[in-house]
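Translate structure to sequence.
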């Protein structure tokens, strides 16, 4: 039926898209029209009249082209926004991860400096930490918002340092409250280091945000992967049923 082929070609001639997809849509539209023509011929209509009526029932060339154009635009916009949101969530999580890890790196450097400064303070201390030295150490801890406690052990001549510290009383201890909710992602961790001379062990309790960085990355991936998947499925599979459902409703 050349009239149907010409009609379908005229409907799709201005659409730029995936050629295979458009060809499949054209074939499906042709099948629908042929079925309609056959039904009309069974009702006693001539082939020419049946073709004309079938095309009119579809809405005519201009109306069909408008509907298909709107549906193509809607689909493109929908898939575009899916892609944008997927990229946004992934980029946001990566940015958040990078910022948190940068903060944690800065905190690590600060803790390292505090440990070194305490080691310097203790460098000329033999056994008893004087009040002056204690005040200096306390001042260091008060100068940061991430350290909640410092404990200093005298480990001179101690062979098994860690077993010793399990039961020993620290030579000096200073503790204060800091903001650190007890969750899996922001909590208090401990970090211990010797003073370098083998006489003192400095144990620092600090606020850790490593897990928060991992959480932000996992959340971004959890949101973005399904969106990327949906976007990929829409791009791979055809949406012919949606288009022809709208055409049939005309």
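Result:
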């Amino acid at each position: 039926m050349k009239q149907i082929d010409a009609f379908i070609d005229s409907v799709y001639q201005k659409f730029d898209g995936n050629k295979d997809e458009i060809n499949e849509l054209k074939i499906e539209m042709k099948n629908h029209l042929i079925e309609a023509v056959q039904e009309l011929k069974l009702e006693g209509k001539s082939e020419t009249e049946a073709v004309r009526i079938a095309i009119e029932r579809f809405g005519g060339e201009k109306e069909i082209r408008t509907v298909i154009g709107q549906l193509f635009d809607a689909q493109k916009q929908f898939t575009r926004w899916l892609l944008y949101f997927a990229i946004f969530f992934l980029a946001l999580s990566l940015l958040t991860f990078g910022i948190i890890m940068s903060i944690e790196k800065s905190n690590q450097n600060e803790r390292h400096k505090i440990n070194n400064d305490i080691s310097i303070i203790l460098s000329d201390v033999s056994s008893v930490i004087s009040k002056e030295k204690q005040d200096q150490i306390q001042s260091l801890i008060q100068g940061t918002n991430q350290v909640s406690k410092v404990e200093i052990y005298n480990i001179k001549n101690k062979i098994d340092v860690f077993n010793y510290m399990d039961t020993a009383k620290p030579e000096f201890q200073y503790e204060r409250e800091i903001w650190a909710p007890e969750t899996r992602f922001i909590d208090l961790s401990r970090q211990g280091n010797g003073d370098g001379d083998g006489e003192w062990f400095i144990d620092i309790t600090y606020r850790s945000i490593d897990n928060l960085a991992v959480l932000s990355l996992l959340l971004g991936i959890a949101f973005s992967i399904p969106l990327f998947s949906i976007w990929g499925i829409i791009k791979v599979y055809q949406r012919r049923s949606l288009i022809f459902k709208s055409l049939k409703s005309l």
